[in-house]
Amino acid sequence: MVHMIKNKPPLTVFLLCLICIVTTLFYFVYYIRTAELVPDSDKNYEWSDLLDHFNKEDSCLSDYAGQELNNLFDDSILLTTVHTALNIDASKFVKYNKIYGILSLTDWVPRCPKGRLFNKLKIRFDMPLDLKNFTGEVCAQIIGPQDYLPLFLKQGCIVKHIEATKEKVGYLSTKAKSEIDNMFCNGGMPVTMQFKTVIDKSNFANYLSSVERNVIYIHLLWAGCLMLFLTICIIVYAFLYTEKQTEVYGEKCTHFLRK
């Protein structure tokens, strides 16, 4: 074995890499099996990706004319609400004190869809009454299926519901830039808005379910066992091959000395 390590460094390095891979796989097997909570990194990444998707869309603001928002999702769909900071062009929103709308999901899907796909989410926010000191940042509520929105230890911002003597409601709609719709924003005005995409990762509260953990555990365990078997086979073969070569080399030396 020592002879193999000294005389076959590429094989030695390869075996060390395999051993490191096997060790890592079994470490993750142990972690998935024993950890109380395992963060769902896909869900955390999807939220940033979703906000970035909204920032790239075309947006339109118009008068709210009774557009149907209440029946956007079936009663069987479990909904959740996320609060997030949103920067808007205040000069185009000042005529309204409440904003309702639809965010398009065209050209965007979750990384790991768990069921039915949706193409819209709801959004709403209130405009401040005092616009003199308004910086353009509002706290928007995004409402949609639980599979599409993350959970947080605490919401990203605080919603302040404004009680106005007379409600003036605006309707916000978006569409993907790749989507061709000649009637989009017909009667409205284009607006710009930017969601805050810098998020404190420690605030996420998304964890893998027991079913997801079992699936990952089984796959990692099989992969670890397979890699371990492969590593053992290579080590045994290399050891036997090296011993054989040593014996052949010794016989040749003995034969040469006898001559």
From TrEMBL:
Segments crossing the lipid bilayer: 12-32, 216-240
Coarse class of the protein's main subcellular location: membrane
Classification via InterPro entries: TMEM248/TMEM219, TMEM248/TMEM219_dom
Top-rank lineage group of the source organism: Eukaryota
GO cellular component, one term: membrane
Keywords, sorted A to Z: Membrane, Transmembrane, Transmembrane helix
UniProt keyword Transport, yes or no: no
Domain TMEM248/TMEM219, residue spans: 2-91
Keyword hit for Transmembrane helix: yes
Subcellular localization(s) per the UniProt record: Membrane
Name of the protein in its database record: TMEM248/TMEM219 domain-containing protein
Source organism of this protein record: Callosobruchus maculatus
